[in-house]
Amino acid sequence: MKKILAIFLLFLGFHLNAQETKNVLFIGNSYTYYNNLPVLIQNLAASNGDVLNKDENTPVGMTLNWHSSNATTLSKIDGGEWDYVVLQEQSQMPSFSPGQVATDSKPFAKILCDSIKENNACSKPMFFMTWGRENGDAGNCAAYPPICTYEGMQQRLRESYLEMTTENEAECAPVGMAWKKVREDFPAIELYQADESHPSLEGSYLAACVFYTSIFHKSTVGNSFISTLDSTTAFRLQTIASATVLDSLEVWQIDTNAVLPIVFDSVISACDSLELNGNWLYSDTTFSDTAFINAPCDISIVNYTISIHKDKTNIIAFDQLLPAKTEEQTGIYMSVFAENFDSLVLYNNDTVVAIFYVNPELYLFDCGENVFNEMNFTLAAFNSCNSDSVTMIFHCNSLSGIDEVNKINWKISPNPSSNFIDIVSSINENFTTSLYDISGREILIKTKETRLDLSTLDKGMYFVVLYNEDGLAIGQKRIIKN
In the chain, where does the domain assigned CATH 3.40.50.1110 lie? Predict the structure, then answer.
């Protein structure tokens, strides 16, 4: 698993964004092949910069019993280095009585899971929790009344798939629970075909979003691949799918240790602000979630942990992430803690800098006079089963020293603002006004303009910088777009 940590020495910011390749085999029937579900997942992955290599065996109406002895299924399991093998039972069978499921489904789920693990100890079975019939299972209602309604059938599907997940040390893609949430919140979205069983394109797209998040451990919200759906429907399905998976990782037994986000344990003090999942918080806030920390900050210690499954190598934590800002230098110290590794290799771009066999302490970068410079370090951990890496991207930005040159008399109004800001300055010379986002990216340049239009910008923090005719920064102020 790969993780990327970007460290901006201007606005000490943290984010992880992994680009990954996953090999996935789909075993099931028409619920999987309708609307070419594996390709929908593949397209979501590609849109987010990831790669899904897939194969499948999904004949109509087939059961886990049939797959457990089918030569094609077993050959495909044995023929690939799969990260995940998705198992989907015939759509009604897991909803039957616990006794019948124990006889007709569970033994064959175990056979398949054992075959998966025998082929590759690093492969993970993932059960495809399906959805209930639109109005319950009328054909089996008399024999087992709990499935006479959609709600009762969905509950039994949930119970059976989670039991099989637990019993086989597998993971579960909770498509059925996302399906239930869409039915409750957006009943106008038609998830079913006319047969009240098979998925419409909307239903398959919802399933694809659940699978993408379950496999890659990333949200689909905002993903640009929406097939032929309208953008509003796609956004609603993306949001529910991602929330269903990420809000209950332990319930679905998805390897939470392999999942981002970073977990921060410390209190951030003396920071200007902090954006937490779209919500702005301020100094002395204790939090535990994905976060972007916007500075200038004075942070003595930030503790966070990235844990991976115990059988995998992983870089588990950076402790004491210390911005060393003195008159002489600006840089970063890190104490690294990894586990289950044979070696740790530090790269600068593609060049090996050092190899460690114990957890090291690193002083990685000194900006010095390097303005608008970027350096990339990758720390990779290796063992016989797999590898894990964190890429640290350091940006030295000339904005870091602008506070010291704010010697002119100028102001910005209104601030915060949702539409525009006016710049009032005492200087008479020509100047250039630039606008930067929190990553230090220049997004707007206006020469001799005293009004900046913010209406098209996302909500958040930005920095306005004034430059004189010689290109020297003469002032910087923080603004909030609301």
Answer: 20-255
The CATH architecture of the domain made up of 20-255 is 3-Layer(aba) Sandwich (3.40)
The answer to whether the CB of 293 falls within 8 A of the CB of 267 is no
Q: What is the third-level CATH fold of 401-481?
A: Immunoglobulin-like (2.60.40)
Query: What type of residue is 156?
Result: R
With beta carbons less than 8 A apart as the criterion, state whether 144 and 152 touch: no
pLDDT at 347: 76
Predicted local confidence at residue 410, as pLDDT: 76
pLDDT in tens, 109-160: 999 999 999 998 889 999 999 999 999 999 999 999 999 999 999 999 999 9
Structure tokens at 444: 């707007």
3-state secondary structure the chain: CEEEEEEECCCCCCCECCCCEEEEEEECCHHHHHHHHHHHHHHHHHHCCCEEEEEEECCCCCCHHHHHCCHHHHHHHHCCCCCEEEECCCCCHHHCCHHHHHHHCHHHHHHHHHHHHHHCCCCEEEEECCCCCECECHHHCCCCHHHHCHHHHHHHHHHHHHHHHHHCCCEEECHHHHHHHHHHHCCCCCCECCCCCCECHHHHHHHHHHHHHHHHCCCCCCCCCCCCCCHHHHHHHHHHHHHHHHCCCCCCCCCHHHCCCCEECCEECCCCEEEECCEEECCCEECCCCCEEECCCCCCCCCEECCCCCCCCEEEEEEEEEEEECCCCEEEEEEEEEECCCEEEEEECCEEEEEECCCCEEEEEECCCCCCEEEEEEEEEECCCCEEEEEEEEEECHHHHHHHHCCCCEEEECCCECCEEEEEECCCCCCEEEEECCCCCEEEEEECCCEEECCCCCCEEEEEEEECCCCCEEEEEEEEEC
**Closest by Cα among 129, 130, 125 to 168:** 125
